[in-house]
Amino acid sequence: MKVLIIGGGGREHAIAWKAVQSPKVHKLYCAPGNAGIAEIAECVDIGVMEFDRQVEFARSKGIDLVIVGPDDPLVAGAADAFLKAGMRVFGPEKKAACLEGSKSFSKDLMKKYNIPTAAYETFDQASAALTYLETAKMPVVLKADGLALGKGVLICNTLEEAKDGVRTLMLDKQFGSAGDRIVVEEFMVGREVSVLAFVDGKNIKIMTSAQDHKRAKDGDKGLNTGGMGTFSPSPFYTEEIDAFCRKYIYQATVNAMKSENREFKGIIFFGLMLTKEGPKVLEYNARFGDPETQVVLPRMKNDIIEVFEACIDGTLDKIDLQFEDNAAVCVVLASAGYPEHYEKGFPIKGLEHFKDQAGYYVFHAGSRSGEDGMPVTNGGRVLGVTALGRDLKEARANAYEATNWVDFENKYMRHDIGKAIDEA
């Protein structure tokens, strides 16, 4: 098979790394890719939102399978463009990707089908939102309705913070049109868990659990980011919680989308909060998480191409999804200043140390090939250093050891990724 991956981040590097292990894959392309992906696939200079060029390229190369990685193209209809051209594509159509593309849609869906989530109100006008806040119980959570690079969520502890948040999202347009509509949500207390799942429209197969670290600084301080590190599995995600979620959240979501004539084929990412009242949905994503993918896929036993094809063909019920009985931790190496202002173009050194080390991986997120062909930094999140271990503590120690192997100017990371496992 000839396979094309759309995207160029750490998630897509992890998908590409897993895909080339499949005996089904003869040739792998990635658009646009990055310096790490370029080592295992042919990278093509086509942007993630350039659907016409993507389709034209796929036709010219006789691509057998397209995998769309990021949220923006999925929500904008990338899968639809390939389907219209008669191609096989892994990823939800636009009408299904709105599960992530619109917070108000997903909240209304959960309300309609009794899927556990936080109480909420939706607003199109800043004035109405500000009036509502006067009587709302603090703290509250403000969410931009549209896509905001994983950063459009504000936790507001006081009324003044909440009012400032409304102005930031709706009037100052910090996240552009994503803030034209906002969701004001009750603040839930508990542990967050991420659970990814394959979906074929009617059947769902649950992957292993993970936990992300969104804040930029140690101790969960600082601004929200796309994710500074993650671990898998979550020791807080018990068999009892899993049984509840399978019955009342996972399958219920797939059934709800089917009932709404928005049949979902691809990945549903369930962001959960484990509250005293039980698990509740924080958010849905319509694709692999980043950096959750970097700890989930190294633990997956299956041929990922076979699973993708089963999702497309509606035969996921025939797949026995299996994961290794081990653990993984990913520590993101970022550019100092992320998620705000940071410099690019610094040489990345030490990547050769990962070549012969079993159980250690480095996934490129923000890199490109420099003039001498060597990788240089090209983003806020630069690398995801991932390591396996017999348990979470060993995996964490291994991951942090491996962060010392690689270096670049202005390298920054959190030092407490997976610290929560000490409390488990």
What are the SSEs and their pairings?
Blueprint: E1 2-7, H1 10-19, E2 27-32, E3 42-43, H2 51-61, E4 65-68, H3 71-76, H4 78-84, E5 89-90, H5 94-101, H6 103-112, E6 120-123, H7 126-133, E7 140-144, E8 153-156, H8 159-171, E9 182-186, E10 191-200, E11 204-212, E12 215-217, E13 221-224, E14 229-232, H9 239-259, E15 265-275, E16 278-285, H10 293-296, H11 304-313, E17 327-335, E18 360-364, E19 367-369, E20 375-377, E21 381-389, H12 392-403, E22 411-412
Parallel strand pairs: 1-2, 1-4, 2-3, 4-5
Antiparallel strand pairs: 6-9, 7-8, 7-9, 10-11, 10-15, 11-14, 12-13, 14-17, 15-16, 17-21, 17-22, 18-21, 19-20
Helix pairs in contact: 7-8
